[in-house]
């Protein structure tokens, strides 16, 4: 099954990437850009029958390794 | 060049004549896979078909040469069982297509050339050239290339300890990205790119093979840029420094345990090269099974498998009884491996795919029978016009001129670049970026290895022969001021379109100049690289040879001279050939006058030898030695003041002499009476002291202003200012 | 005093650390990350580099290496555990140190000497130094920017002027008990004046002295 | 307006990061994971009235800085 994981940086954590990209956009004259946040999307191909079960297993991978709880939240979506 | 209607050989970048010789060679129609192999192996990049004949001019012999040009890297003897392996490579076109990955894979490639020889790569030097930084496109390329070198070099764990930067409009559509690598090994670890005797097993190590870089380096580097270069984009390769790091450690273990007969890296021309070249060198044939190759994506065709330039791969040739051990080393280091071939008697290379024979060719023919062109050459008429209009003198006060020069991104501090590079790993960097030559200690010995890389497209544009020679002499002096004596040269010849007679003339003149200078110094050329077709929309770059000089300091001076060791009360001496006011090709002419005319001062063999010998000797007593190059004496002294945080006064020299870049000169700074100068041309030109720099008649310049101007030259431009 | 210097795939400062510790009289041995048992070692160093290519997040994959079980045991026993640069990142990922390391403020790799101030001497890295002592050693990282939302970290060394945006200008952070320390700059690159500085010695000597035989 | 940009690496371009993460997941016993691809998602706050126009401007930003046309494709979605 296809699974999409989005790992988003917690709002209270600094985001040098986002800040830098926003600055770059302003330099290019795109002053209309108010904020930029850059997150990670992980596309997984996972063997399995039951979406619910796949969901649980991928959430476990997120807690284990795919996301760092100090910095990030995650959301898992089984696309199938 | 790639419209589907064309015959396959043309689509593969092969001329009709070349196709004919394949027909003659095989006495039949080549199969697609065979044509694929010949097309990449016979590309300019892999076969040096336009340059091979002329490169024979280089002196390559010396008692300390262990391996000369021809192998993956040159190897010289450092004594006491230590050898050094060195090589320089270009990744110009890939870096224009994708600056980060282009530069990164350039680093990966040169590292493999060096550890293929059995050496551990210990240091890298990058020589990078771009168009002016006021153009955002050039800033993008510069930033991308520097991040790519940093991203790969730092992560693979080899320090980048020096290099060179130049900016000129001629590089706007065609940046130059060259990288030099130095490796060190014990004599018994030396390995060559040979397939060994019949029965030897070929094991492919490292990254899985994918479609990336099909015809990439070889095709990209073998044609010019034009509207079609967009089409070349899909063949961008992505580097994986992590995979390369594991590959280095695995290979070094193989060498230390003597488990391999030979090794060949997979770069341009991928499997085609890694099978045919070692077999050709050993005068044997080989059976290759493409189905055994570990792949990243399914459904790859035989030509794709043979041409793929997937990075971080090595071919190891192993005697049958050691295969298991080699596979075990691979899995210990967590890299993939596959037995893909078996060396056979005779000289036929037989490639099978899905049970069928897809290629059956004389192994050696792919390298040895490559076309050899003696392209027409013509001395350009405009050379005489340039020589006929000598350079003007400098009109502004020397202080103003100096500040203009220090603010130039090619002369100002390189910190913006080299602070993005790990230049300290391995704890050997005694002299790193920011001075003249780099100096690395060889732990457990009293030896120091000095390296300097030097190029100067503008000088070579005005006089390729004198320019080529002066680069060798400058590089030699750069290693001499660290206490080393020149030992061997690698060269990277970046030129325009060789199908133009004027470009071929520039090329031959340069080769002649470099050869004469090496003969003067009694040092061999042990390796190098040629990059042609550096042109965009018909405009060629300046002829831009880059010389990489290795020197040996034994014993290494402790401490060695440093720009930062000048102190109140020391005297400033200019040692070497008295300069003339000729500014042809100088930084002053470029920055202050925006001109490029005149004939540069010719090198002088006797003075060159003398200056190198004297500098290498003085390095053991003088606290500061600095060669005089870009920006002349004025910039050299300013760099010393900035590094030592102390002022200076230079007396009684007229402005043109302060900025002249005439060769064979260096600055020495020392306490009066603490250094005895040998017989020969040497002039006391000033004293160290105070917090300002005073040049002849002009207003004193505050040290802080000097330092800030020098520091900000690149950063203020990269900030888009 | 036997020190284990852990080698992950992608680690590159292991030989430098062994060299520096040996030069100071320590007995340092390389330990491959597949080892699980560190008994017999009095302390452990996770050296700098790019373990597992720093892919996903720096340190994220390395923390699952078998050897980390042994490292956690040592930390639990109160033995000295030192993470340098990438090692610091791994210790944060594995929860042995608070916070995490993100990209430098200016999104550029930084390799240069930086000046540090000792602000806590009650750790296995700073035990031999004086409070307020200035130390000049090289920084060499892209992800050197320490963030600690929980504000539970103990800062042992501070940058005199912050190069990368690190919270509280932290250059080295210690566990509550002070026996686990992560330091972003490289003390092992500061043990030889010929290479620019000898200031790192006092840190590594402190580390060696902090060991009691296992 | 909120705009979501997904930047995905072209399929033919190698993804060493994805490969390494997949290997790690297998080491952790998640053998069911068949493939991993790691991409970026960029969340923008952009001033503007007309969604169509915002779309066009953000697509321009993608070509300029947000995506690398040589290696990556992008998709822009104006959320509102
Ligand atoms: N691209 C670069 N990367 C790292 N160091 C560089 C680079 N370019 C220049 N440097 C360093 O800056 C110093 C001055 O460079 P350069 O002006 O080419 O020296 P020289 O004038 O003696 O040939 C050298 O130490 C060189 O190693
Ligand atoms: Mg110099």
Task: Provide an overview of this structure.
The complex is a heterotetramer, with 2 copies of chain A (80 residues), 1 copy of chain B (721 residues) and 1 copy of chain C (214 residues). Chain A is an alpha+beta fold and 80 residues long. Helix content of chain A is 35%, strand content 36%. Chain A contains 2 helices and 3 strands, in the order E-H-E-H-E. Chain A has helices spanning 16-27, 51-66; strands at 2-9, 33-46, 72-78. A 3-stranded antiparallel beta sheet of chain A has the order 2-1-3. The radius of gyration of chain A is 16 Å and the shape is elongated. The mean pLDDT of chain A is 94. With 721 residues, chain B is α+β, with helices and mostly antiparallel strands. Chain B has 25 helices and 28 strands. In chain B, helix 7 (99-115) packs parallel to helix 8 (136-156) and helix 19 (464-480) packs parallel to helix 20 (501-521). The longest helix of chain B is centred in the N-terminal third of the chain and has 21 residues, at 136-156. Chain B is globular, with a radius of gyration of 26 Å. With 214 residues, chain C is of the alpha/beta class. Chain C is 17% helix and 27% strand. The longest helix of chain C has 10 residues, at 14-23. The relative contact order of chain C is 0.19. The chains are: A alpha+beta (80), B alpha+beta (721), C alpha/beta (214). At the B-C interface, helix 8 and helix 10 of B face helix 1 and strand 6 of C. Magnesium ion (MG) binds at residues 436, 478, 627, 629 of chain B.
Chain-wise SSE layout:
The complex is a heterotetramer, with two copies of chain A (80 residues), one copy of chain B (721 residues) and one copy of chain C (214 residues).
Chain A: E1 2-9, H1 16-27, E2 33-46, H2 51-66, E3 72-78
Chain B: H1 8-11, H2 16-26, H3 32-41, H4 44-47, H5 52-55, E1 65-67, E2 74-79, E3 82-90, H6 92-97, H7 99-115, E4 120-130, H8 136-156, E5 160-167, E6 176-186, E7 201-206, H9 216-220, H10 241-256, E8 262-265, H11 270-282, E9 285-289, H12 302-307, E10 313-318, H13 323-332, E11 337-344, E12 348-353, E13 356-362, H14 365-368, H15 382-388, H16 398-406, H17 415-418, E14 429-431, E15 438-441, E16 448-455, H18 457-462, H19 464-480, E17 485-494, H20 501-521, E18 525-531, E19 535-536, E20 539-540, E21 544-553, E22 571-576, H21 587-593, H22 605-618, E23 624-627, H23 632-644, E24 648-650, H24 655-659, E25 665-670, E26 682-688, E27 692-695, E28 701-702, H25 703-718
Parallel strand pairs in B: 4-5, 9-12, 17-18, 24-27
Antiparallel strand pairs in B: 1-2, 2-3, 3-6, 4-6, 7-10, 7-11, 8-10, 9-11, 12-13, 14-15, 15-16, 16-21, 17-21, 19-20, 22-25, 22-26, 23-25, 24-26, 27-28
Chain C: E1 2-7, H1 14-23, E2 27-32, E3 43-46, H2 67-76, E4 81-84, H3 86-93, E5 100-102, E6 110-118, E7 134-141, E8 145-147, E9 154-159, E10 170-174, E11 180-183, H4 201-209
Parallel strand pairs in C: 1-2, 1-3, 3-4, 4-11
Antiparallel strand pairs in C: 5-8, 6-7, 6-9, 9-10, 10-11
């Amino acid at each position: 099954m296809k699974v999409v994981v989005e790992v988003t940086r917690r709002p209270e954590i600094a985001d040098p990437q986002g800040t830098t990209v926003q600055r770059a956009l302003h330099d290019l004259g795109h002053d209309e850009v108010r904020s930029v946040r850059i997150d990670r999307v992980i596309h997984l191909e996972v063997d399995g029958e039951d979406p619910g079960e796949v969901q649980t297993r991928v959430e476990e991978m997120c807690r284990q390794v795919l996301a760092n709880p100090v910095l990030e939240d995650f959301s898992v979506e089984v696309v199938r | 060049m790639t419209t589907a209607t064309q015959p396959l050989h043309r689509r593969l970048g092969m001329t009709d004549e070349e196709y004919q010789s394949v027909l003659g060679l095989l006495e039949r129609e080549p199969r697609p896979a065979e044509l694929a192999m010949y097309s990449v192996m016979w590309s300019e990049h892999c076969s040096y078909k336009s340059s091979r004949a002329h490169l024979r001019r280089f002196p390559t012999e010396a008692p300390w040469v262990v391996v000369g040009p021809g192998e993956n890297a040159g190897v010289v003897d450092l004594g006491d069982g230590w050898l050094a392996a060195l090589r320089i490579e270009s990744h110009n076109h890939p870096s224009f297509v994708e600056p980060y990955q282009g530069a990164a894979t350039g680093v990966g490639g040169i590292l493999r050339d060096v550890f293929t020889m059995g050496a551990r790569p210990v240091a890298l030097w990058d020589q990078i050239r771009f168009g002016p930084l006021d153009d955002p496109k050039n800033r993008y390329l510069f930033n991308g290339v520097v991040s790519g070198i940093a991203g790969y070099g730092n992560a693979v764990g080899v320090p980048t300890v020096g290099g060179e930067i130049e900016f000129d409009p001629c590089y706007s559509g065609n940046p130059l990205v060259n990288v030099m690598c130095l490796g060190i090994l014990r004599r018994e670890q030396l390995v060559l790119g040979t397939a060994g005797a019949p029965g030897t097993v070929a094991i492919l190590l490292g990254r899985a093979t994918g479609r990336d870089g099909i015809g990439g380096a070889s095709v990209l580097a073998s044609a010019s840029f034009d509207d079609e270069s967009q089409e070349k984009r899909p063949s961008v390769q992505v580097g994986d420094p992590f995979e390369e790091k594991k590959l280095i450690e695995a290979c070094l273990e193989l060498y230390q345990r003597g488990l391999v007969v030979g090794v060949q890296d997979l770069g341009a021309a991928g499997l085609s090269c890694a099978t045919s070249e070692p077999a050709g060198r050993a005068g044997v044939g080989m059976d290759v099974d493409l189905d055994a190759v570990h792949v990243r994506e399914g459904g790859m065709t035989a030509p794709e498998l043979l041409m793929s330039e997937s990075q971080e791969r090595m071919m190891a040739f192993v005697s049958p009884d050691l295969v298991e051990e080699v596979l075990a080393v691979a899995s210990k280091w967590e890299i993939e491996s596959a037995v893909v071939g078996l060396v056979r008697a005779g000289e036929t290379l037989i490639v099978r795919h899905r049970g069928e024979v897809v290629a059956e060719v004389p192994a050696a023919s792919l390298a040895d029978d490559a076309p050899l062109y003696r392209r027409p050459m013509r001395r350009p008429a405009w050379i005489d016009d340039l020589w006929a209009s000598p350079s003007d003198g400098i009109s502004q006060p020397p202080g103003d001129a100096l500040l203009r020069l220090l603010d130039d991104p090619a002369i100002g501090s390189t910190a913006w670049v080299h602070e993005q590079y790990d230049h300290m790993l391995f704890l050997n960097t005694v002299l790193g970026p920011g001075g003249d030559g780099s100096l690395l200690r060889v732990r457990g010995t009293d030896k120091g290895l000095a390296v300097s890389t030097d190029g100067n497209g503008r000088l070579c544009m005005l006089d390729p022969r004198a320019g080529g020679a002066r680069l060798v002499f400058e590089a030699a002096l750069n290693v001499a001021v660290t206490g080393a004596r020149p030992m061997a040269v690698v060269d990277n010849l970046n030129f325009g379109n060789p199908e133009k007679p004027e470009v071929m003339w520039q090329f031959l003149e340069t080769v002649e100049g470099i050869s004469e200078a090496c003969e003067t110094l009694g040092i061999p050329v042990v390796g190098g690289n040629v990059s042609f077709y550096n042109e965009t929309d018909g405009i060629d770059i300046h002829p831009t040879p880059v010389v990489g000089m290795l020197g040996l300091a034994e014993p290494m001076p402790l401490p060695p001279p440093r720009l930062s060791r000048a102190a109140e009360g020391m005297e400033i001496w200019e040692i070497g050939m008295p300069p003339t006011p000729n500014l042809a090709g100088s930084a002053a002419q470029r920055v202050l006058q925006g001109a490029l005319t005149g004939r540069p001062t010719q090198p002088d063999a006797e003075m060159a030898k003398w200056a190198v010998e004297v500098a290498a000797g003085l390095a053991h007593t003088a606290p500061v030695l600095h060669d005089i190059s870009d920006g002349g004496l004025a910039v050299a002294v300013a760099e010393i003041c900035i590094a030592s945080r102390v002022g200076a006064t230079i007396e009684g020299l007229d402005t043109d002499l302060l900025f002249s870049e005439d060769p064979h000169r260096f600055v020495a700074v020392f306490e009066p009476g603490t250094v005895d100068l040998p017989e020969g041309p040497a002039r006391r030109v000033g004293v160290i002291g105070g917090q300002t720099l005073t040049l002849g008649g002009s207003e004193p310049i505050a040290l802080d202003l000097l330092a800030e101007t020098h520091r900000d030259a690149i950063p203020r431009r990269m900030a888009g200012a | 005093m036997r020190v284990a210097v852990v080698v992950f795939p992608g680690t590159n400062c292991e030989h430098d650390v062994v060299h520096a510790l040996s030069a100071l009289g320590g007995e340092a041995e390389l330990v491959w990350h597949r080892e699980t048992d560190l008994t017999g070692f009095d302390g452990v160093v996770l050296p700098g580099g790019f373990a597992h290519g720093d892919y996903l997040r720096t340190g994220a994959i390395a923390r699952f290496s078998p050897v980390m079980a042994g490292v956690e045991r040592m930390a639990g026993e109160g033995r000295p555990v030192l993470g340098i640069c990438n090692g610091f990142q791994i210790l944060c990922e594995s929860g042995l140190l608070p916070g995490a390391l993100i990209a430098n403020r200016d999104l550029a790799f930084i390799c240069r000497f930086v000046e540090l101030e000792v602000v806590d001497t009650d750790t296995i890295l700073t035990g031999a130094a004086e409070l307020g002592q200035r130390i000049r050693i090289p920084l060499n990282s892209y992800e050197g920017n320490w963030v600690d939302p929980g504000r539970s970290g103990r800062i042992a060394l501070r940058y005199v002027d912050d190069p990368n945006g690190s919270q509280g200008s932290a250059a080295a952070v210690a566990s509550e008990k002070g026996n686990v320390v992560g330091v972003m700059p490289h003390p092992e690159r500061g043990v030889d004046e010929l290479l620019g500085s000898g200031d790192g010695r006092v840190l590594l000597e402190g580390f060696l002295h902090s060991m009691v035989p296992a």
